Amino acid sequence: TYAGTPSFMPREQVINYRDMKPVSDVWSMEATLYNMLTGHIPRDFPRERDPVQIILQEKVVPIRQRDANVPRKVAEFIDRCITNDIKDRYQDAGQMRAAFMNSYEHSK
Prior knowledge:
single chain, mainly alpha
């Protein structure tokens, strides 16, 4: 059993949705941004496959594979937010915001 919309779910939400942490919200927020920028969701969900199996077994498609026009710094930021590996993600919205602001300052 799981709760949520598969297209915007991090892997850990399928594994144990009752033990969600801020790092999972980072994934979901950036999956939404990914969709807004590209018109696609982070994973492919073919009709013939179980969505849970896809979430557990498949990698996220890097955003620049969906749209090569996404600026490199933005793509790096989003790809880090939606990696399947929790320890490689920003751990909460505050850490994510600080990283975004830092990359924004360096892009001026």
